[in-house]
Structure formats: C-alpha cells, structure tokens
Amino acid sequence: MTLMILKMIGCLALLMFGMKTMSEGLQKLTGGHLRAVLGTMTKHRIGGLLTGTFVTASVQSSTATTVLTVSFVNAGLLTLSQAIPVIMGANIGTTATAWIMSIFGFQFNMSSVVWPFFALGIILSYTKKNSTKSIGEFVFGFAFMFLGLTTLRENAVAMDLAHNQAVINFFSTTGGWGIFSTLLFLLLGSILTMCVQSSAAIMAITLLLCSSGVLPIYQGIALVMGENIGTTVTSNLAALSASTQARRAALAHMLFNVFGVVWVLIVFRPFVNMVCSIVGFDPTFVPHTEEEVAQASVRVTYALSAFHTAFNLCNVLILIWFIKPMEKIICKIIREKEDGEDFKVKFISAGLMSTAELSLFEARKEINLFAARTQKMFRMVPELLEMKDENDFVKLFARIEKYEGISDNMEIEIANYLNKVSEGRLSPESKTNIQSMLREISEIESIGDSCYNMARAINRKFRSKEDFTENQYGHIKHIMQLCDNALTNMIDVISDHASADANRTLNLENEINDYRKLLKEKNVTDIENQEYSYQMGVHYMDVVNDCEKLGDYVVNVVEAHANKKFST
User: Fold this and answer.
1) How far is CA 298 from CA 16, 206, 331, in A?
2) Among the residues of 126-216, which ranges form H helices?
3) pTM greater than 0.85 (yes/no)
4) Rounded CA gap, 431 and 364, in Å?
5) 138 pLDDT above the threshold of 50
6) Tens digits of per-residue pLDDT, 48-106?
7) Domain ranges, residue 551
8) Dihedral through CA 203, CA 208, CA 211, CA 216, nearest 10?
9) Is there a contact between 457 and 331 (Cβ–Cβ < 8 Å)?
10) Which of the listed residues 333, 356, 383 is the one where a domain comes to its end?
11) Helix axes 130-159, 2-40, angle to 10 degrees
C-alpha cells in the first residue's frame, strides 16, 4: 500500500511537471504576441474578459495572465478596473485544463500515444530555431502531462479504490453531514491546492476519485470549489511583499472566487443537478453493468468540468456589471502606501515569474524605472547648485544622499533577481539579454555615483566662504543640460521607443567631452587671471569632470542595451 501511495505521488508530480513544461513552452512561443494582445484589447470590460479567457486557454496558466495584467497596471497602461475583467476571463480560460483532462485523459487511452510525442519533442528540441525549440518543449510537456494522468489512472485501478472499505467508509461517513460535508470538502480542496501549488493537480485527483466511483459527485464538486479558493490564497500570500497594485489584483481574484463559492453554496444541490443534466449525468443513478459503470465514469468527469466552467461563467455574468464597486472596495481594503513605496523595486517584488521570458520582461521594466529614478536624482543637482538657504540646502543634499543609497540597493536587488533567472532553463538569446542587463544596471548605478559626487562637490563649495562666478554657473548649467539630454535619450533607447536613436547618445557624449575640454583649458586661464581662487577652480572642475564621467556611463548603458560597441 505504501508503494502504491508513493507511485500516486510520483504520477501526480509527473502531471504537474508536464503542465508546467507545456505552459512554459507556450509562453515562450507566444509571450510577445500575448503581451501585445493584453496591451491593446483590455480597454473595454468585454474585450478584457475575452482577452483573459483567450490568453489563459492558450498558455494553460491563469498565473501567467494575471502576472502580465498586473505588470500593465504597475506600468500605468491599465487601470485596476480594466484589469479585473481580464482576471475574470483568466478564471474562465483556466477551466480548459479540466476539459482537456476529461476528454483526452479519461475517454481515450493515451498510454500508447504519448511515446511518439516524446520522440517528436526530442527532435524539435535539438533544432537551432528558438520558436521550434519552444514547440518541442510544449510537446514534451503535453506528453509528460498525459503520461502522468494515464499512470495515475492505472495506479488507481490497481489500488481498486472502489472496493477499498476504509476509503468507502470515510467518504460515506463524511458525505452524510449535509452542508457540513460540503464545507469539509471545500476546506480540503483549498488546503490541498495551497499545499501542492497547483489547482490542475487537485482537479486531476478529483476527476480520478469521482470516475472510480469512490467519491460522490457532490463532494467532488465541493473539492473543485475549494480549489478555486486555494489557488487565490496562494497568489495573495505571494503578493504580500509585492506592490500595492499587485496585491489589489490578487485580492480581486480572491473576492471573485469567494463570492462565487458563497452564492453557489446557497443553491448548491439545484445548481449541481442542473449542470449535471446538461452533460447527461444523473447524480442519483447507480450503475449495475460494466458498460453503465464505464459510461458513468466518463460522464462524471464531464459533469465536474462543466461545473467548473459554469461556476466561473455565472460568476462573471453576475460580477461583470459591478467592476467599479469592486475596485472601490479593493482600494479601501488595500490603501496606497504614503511613505517609502516610491523607493522600492516595483515590478520584480513578487519574485520570479513562471518563465524566463516573463521574468526578463519584468526585469526590463525595473531597469527602465531604475534609469528614470536616476535621472530624477540628477535633476536635483542643478537645484542644489542654485540654493542659498542652508536649511533647504541640507534637506536637498540629504535627499540626494538617500537616492544614492537607493541606487545601490536597486542595483543589488535587480542583479540578484537576474542571477536567479539565469539559474533556469534559458535560450542563448535570454542568456545574452541577462548579461546586457547586468552591465546596464552597473552603469546606471555609476551614474548615480556621479550625481552624488557632483552634489558633494557643490556641498564643499557651499561650506567654503567663496562662490562660483556668473560665468562658472552658466558653464555648469550648460554641461548639466547636455547630461540631462543624454539621460533622456538613454531612457528612450533602453525603453525601446520607436523614435529612440542610439547614435545620438554618442553625439551628445562628444559634445560633453569637447565642452569639458574647453572648460578645463579656460579654468587654467581664469585662475591665472585671478577670476576666482584656485580652490574654487577645483570645486568647479570636480562638477564638470563628474558631468563628463556621467556622459561616459550613459554611453556604456546604451552600448550594453544595443549589445555593440560604438566607435568613438
């Protein structure tokens, strides 16, 4: 018996691995297109609903759809009210998994079919084209999933659960508790889903138990309802350390499913009987012949899948009209943080995504945000230069100093995230992208160091009894403006804006170099002519030199992103 249980766990692990591999292959193959679809078709609630359904059914992962949706909300491309219909659609799309298992896993014997798929998968995996490799990964996942499902069924038949008295007694005893029986199995479904982190795996077990005749349909459906809650608890726990918008999206997912469970519990038996009648399954029918048993075992899997779909469809039809009130309730429960949130990583705070492609997509947005914050830090330096009041000067200098520490922390957090991504299965293109990103964040952090060094030089000047001349102020403002232009162009380039020109960065850097050379020569002459003191000339050239270094770092960032060396 112990060996049988271990084999069941192994079959379940094989099924989960197959689902994960199949989903990853599809996401790698269609990731870019799916992002485009989500970005353009979610402006209206019906469009968002259909998009969430289509994308989730395509990649077999509601998590992937939710992650992409939340990333668009974080980036300001979607509002929370636009994201909620997509999450609703993802719940409908994820029911496709149950139908696939019911139709192919229980009606047909897939044991002899999966082996050619393994052969096809290995052939496709050794091709050079990345898209073909992704198809191979999908085929492998498909084969593993049905191998796991088939062996799970065979193992259950060998265990003869329908005649196992201990199992029969447990289900018959707990099944006689009325509403408490339903609540018990709902709780079991939630806990099991949280433990294995896969609603599809628990659905497979539910289908197996019900098709073997050992688990009554009503308890099985209670397990399905529990799976819907369990998967949202997992996402909410994962979102605890994430951004406000990520936590709100996860809460929207939970409220949607909890609301559905509550109203279904009120009309539980009539609703279940109605769904069963649609697929031609009678919950009260007791099969006697082998043919009747075989038909009932298939029909009951259809009933479970139909309930899963009907549950989510009815829930959507009820809640799709109340998106604005839902948004208000969610925003009241999870309020925007007033202090400090602007200084944390925003897009990668929820951890690694389901595929390397999604993870790199999140990392790219985090790097773009890092660059934008660095430019914000740089723009404080000209303000510091103009300040005369000591209290205001001290406050702004402390703010720049704080930003420098934030810059250091962001570099470390993004680098650690990219290193974790690199531990997964990556294409050569993804490996190259990670190397480029690591170099980018290093150079962006150096830009932050240059900004802080400028502020320190201005602080040393402020503490002295002298001041820059009007000409010095004018020269510093001009070279800082060139630096600001270079930073703006750098952000456009790494954000892949259509109008971005990487070569313009080199032109701006040459301007900065030429102007710095001119100012260096003029500084010697001005000191000789006693326009200002030698010490004031040192402070002045410290600021100018750091501007020139900043221009060099900007070029390095653009070179890393373009993955080429510019000729100087």
Assistant:
1) 22, 13, 44
2) 130-159, 165-174, 179-196, 199-211
3) no
4) 14
5) yes
6) 788 788 877 766 667 667 766 766 666 556 677 888 888 888 888 888 878 888 877 66
7) 342-562
8) -70
9) no
10) 333
11) 140
